[in-house]
Amino acid sequence: MSRDVGDGLIEARELRKKYGEFEAVRGVDVTVSKGEAFGFLGPNGAGKSSTMRMIAAVSPVSGGDLRILGLDPATDGPAIRARIGVCPQENTLDNELKVKDNLVIYGRFFGLSRAEVSRRADELLAFVQLTEKAGNKVEELSGGMKRRLTVARSLINRPELLLLDEPTTGLDPQARHQLWDRLFRLKQEGVTLVITTHYMDEAEQLCDRLVVMDNGLIVAEGSPAQLIREHSTREVAELRFGIGEHEAMAPKLEDLADRVEALPDRILLYTGDGEATVQSVLERGLEPTSTLVRRSTLEDVFLRLTGRSLVD
Amino acid sequence: MTTYDPDPDAAARASAPPTMADAVGRQVDYWFTLYKRVWRGTVISSFLVPLLYLAAMGIGLGSYVDNKSGGSAIGHVSYLAFIAPGLLATTGMQTAVFESTYPVLGMFKWDKVYFAMLATPLRVRDVLAAHLASVATRIFTTCLVFVVIISAFGAVHVWWGAPLALVGATLTGMAFATPVFGLSSRIKDESAFSLVFRLGLIPMFLFSGAFFPISQLPGQIAWLAYATPVWHGVDLCRSFTLGHVVWLHALGHLAYLGAWVLAGWWWAERGFVKRLTW
Fold this sequence. Notes:
Strand content of chain B: under 5%
Helix content of chain A: 25-40%
Distance between the termini of chain A: 40 Å
Radius of gyration of chain A: 22 Å
Structural class of chain A: alpha/beta
Radius of gyration of chain B: 21 Å
Oligomer: heterodimer
Largest sheet of chain B: none
Mean pLDDT of chain B: 90
Strand content of chain A: 25-35%
């Protein structure tokens, strides 16, 4: 195939992944440039992880074109993997080894000398704030610590491109912020990041540019602000009425907002000025049990594009 | 880490993918680190059981057998000298099977260490080769201890028999390790292993020719026993320790065991590729 492939770190054209009859990725086009923080946003099963595993040169491409660092993963897998870092969805740490040994052993797989890998391991443990745990067993670490160790491990070869598959899924809020802080520092230092997530706040925090995936396809692409501008309104008024009343209430409000979305537990009014909209709802004599005015988020973009919430 | 520079050497290192020897070499530290933690336990447990057999059957039962028959059925050697090489070869087999079941499945399923390894420049075949090499090392060290013990019991009749029997027992083990790797790469949960142990390992241990000559068995069962790699290993090791080597037979045994190793390796590699690169 001689498709037109550009010079981004990642160039995917019409990329597909099939598992038997099931097509998890159904033709996606993605370009990621150097220094970018790029996100794949979508619900579970959207095809994010399948895409990520193809980009990591561990899962064979079923169709389309894929170039990573200008190389073809089908033939240059080892060369690609030598230059990228992978933080998989599951930690895959070796529980039988100590914390530092996990980094040292992993670095050896890249052909680094013992001395070099030991020096880098100390540096990385400091970076992810695990220096004092260096001699502990992995199983003694908390979930957040294990995740940070996995991130440290993915950096042992000083990759040009770092792939993070759902980096903060399953972490408590504090652990998430700690990890975000580290990732943000990497981004500032110029590491190209590719992140999959089903958390819109994570995508907004970390990504310069992202694609929204659903059912194996890209349904929108842009910066978080751009996506919100294009696919949502500036503000959202959330109204709660009694249980079961939301569906019936929606038609009565339709003329008050650009768009009305009735969810089981609340009604969303998409509007430029939330306070004014709430005011007109009240003037109409309707009495919601609670009201909230907020900015539009990527969650709203996703709801608009797919008709479903991101996190069920 | 104040400024981040991608490793300037990484691209250069990557431009030439590692040879398999290099790739296996990169994994030595990993397997050595694991082995350092457990070697005492594995060596003790894997030679203690055969040692008990050696004492109970070689010396206990042996004194009875030797008095009764004068050793005519087993080639006019002491019963101890007859079963010692058999226990050596079956120790190789048992060590191999244990090391190729739970530890292999765990690398796929529990710790998922194989998946971590494959996120690096290592390829599936490199990971398999290194793990097999580590199993070979374990079989070798366990059998080495055992050879020293049977030599001390006077069961090795010629000096050159000891190193050759050690090689033979290690090869016997590998003839089991590679196909069991193949099996472990294909099963979803560990319940299949209890079948392997009960219906495979124990009958093969008992009917391997370690305790009595297979020729004592009725025809079809004898042929079944001859078909198992373990009988070839037992016969090979026995010819070495007793110093009664018919070289044509020995070559036949080596070729048969070697064929199992290679066929099992091929089958295991297919299973590994399928399970690791979906």
